[in-house]
Design a protein that fits this description.
Layout: H1 23-31, H2 35-68, H3 74-77, H4 79-125, H5 129-133, H6 137-179, H7 181-228, H8 230-236, H9 239-291, H10 297-338, E1 360-367, E2 376-383, H11 399-403
Antiparallel strand pairs: 1-2
Helix pairs in contact: 2-4, 2-6, 2-10, 4-6, 6-7, 6-10, 7-9, 7-10, 9-10
Length: about 425
């Protein structure tokens, strides 16, 4: 039954058109067709976040009720409250959090990754051979894999964490307003400071993550292409040169990883300091109001539970925000490589080839790999059915170039 939820997203649905070259539009292109399921998952996550605050509210209410009741009469006088709290923790909360887990683990993660990956792969397969000649095969493959994974993580984390946290903060503000409006104002001021810190760090994390992703893809491309062409490397290359190229790529990746790690460590230090302010402000403020007879002991307990939860959630959410911005940087890096327009396309209204007589004719074919000079110029050639042709010439004379237009490897200079 749970497995059937995985059918809510068609994991191999084709995209409508080519991938855009701007970040927001590209992410929408990759996720198109999933938004109804993502919206439902976001709604469930928001409900789960609200229930977390209701936990503190119920706890405070139970404390106040217990203090106001005689111990021997508590259960008899408050059986409905006890039953309601038990139902909340044993039924409502497990159901909502279970639905949220299903949405993330069954609906989103197993479907969005293959959806984005197949769309990127389908588009990449349509590129001309020049696209692959100008890059490492391993680097292109790595870009596809890490872009699909990063976009999937962004969708999952935004739904599973940010909607949850946003709902929790709104519900917390409402609960603190019910205790005392000044406490809600304190939370708002703290939140503004927290958001300013996040706003300063996150764009920088995104840029460094993008650089790190590019360096990682270069390492993969260097290693994979060396091993893929190991026979050529063994015959014609120098071991020291190949080793030096790999070390240079890994060194660059290490430098970019250190840049990212140093900024991430600074962010975590600031985060722990800011998170520690929440219990001090909320618990201390509520205790002050309690000492003035404005707040009840249950209010102190509720504010304490909320403040500790927000402090814990601050670290969790900030870590996820850092991961989201890092993943956005990886998506942007992959987009810049993989969304190039197709360099070789059919003419409008082109018809499918019909093989009547397998004759090859070259009529004034000029081809120079996109340059103004070089290559071949105005070739005329007829090859009848059954004929075999051998092209002889010195190295660099244009033997492979002469054959390239025949298999449409390059648009080059076209035919004249």
């Amino acid at each position: 039954m749970i497995r059937r939820a995985g059918r809510l997203i068609d994991a191999f649905r084709t995209a409508g058109g080519p991938p855009p070259r701007t970040l927001g539009a590209f992410m929408a292109w990759g996720l198109s067709g999933t938004f109804p399921a993502l919206a439902a998952a976001a709604a469930v996550s928001a409900v789960a976040g609200t229930l977390e605050v209701l936990t503190a509210l119920l706890l405070g209410h139970v404390i106040d009720t217990a203090l106001a009741s005689a111990p021997d009469r508590f259960f008899a006088a408050n059986w409905a409250l006890v039953a309601g709290v038990a139902a909340f923790f044993l039924v409502a909360r497990p159901v909502v959090f279970g639905l949220s887990s299903i949405a993330n683990a069954v609906v989103i993660l197993p479907n969005v990754n293959p959806l984005v990956l197949t769309r990127l792969h389908r588009w990449t397969l349509g590129q001309s051979v020049t696209f692959f000649d100008n890059d490492f095969a391993g680097r292109i493959a790595q870009k596809q894999m890490q872009t699909a994974r990063a976009l999937t993580d962004v969708a999952s984390e935004v739904i599973n964490v940010l909607f949850f946290a946003l709902a929790s903060l709104i519900a917390s503000a409402l609960l603190l307003t019910a205790i005392n409006g000044w406490m809600a104002l304190v939370l708002f001021v703290w939140l503004c400071g927290y958001l300013y810190m996040v706003r300063w760090f996150m764009p920088r994390i995104r840029m460094r993550s993008r650089s790190r992703a590019g360096a990682r893809a270069m390492v993969t491309g260097q290693v994979v292409d060396t091993i893929t062409n190991i026979k050529t490397v063994k015959l014609f290359a120098h071991a020291n040169h190949e080793e030096r190229a790999a070390i240079d790529a890994v060194t660059e990746f290490r430098e970019r990883a250190l840049d990212y790690g140093s900024l991430a460590a600074a962010f975590r230090i600031c985060l722990i300091t800011v998170a520690g302010m929440v219990p001090v402000l909320l618990i201390g403020g509520t205790l002050w109001f309690w000492s003035r007879g404005v707040a009840s002991p249950g209010d102190v307990v509720a504010a304490g539970a909320i403040s500790i939860r927000i402090a814990q959630m601050t670290g969790w959410v900030s870590h996820v925000l850092m991961a989201i911005y890092g993943n956005v940087g990886e998506v942007e890096d992959g987009m810049n490589t993989l969304t190039s327009p197709h360099g070789l396309t059919d003419r409008p209204l082109a018809e499918a080839l019909e093989f009547r007589t397998p004759t090859v004719e070259f009529r004034n074919v000029s081809f120079a790999y996109g340059r103004a000079t070089g290559g071949v110029d105005r070739i005329n050639l007829d090859i009848a059915p059954g004929e075999k042709l051998g092209i002889v010439g010195a190295s660099g004379a244009g033997k492979s170039t002469s054959y390239a237009p025949r298999i449409r490897k390059e648009p080059g200079g076209g035919c004249g």
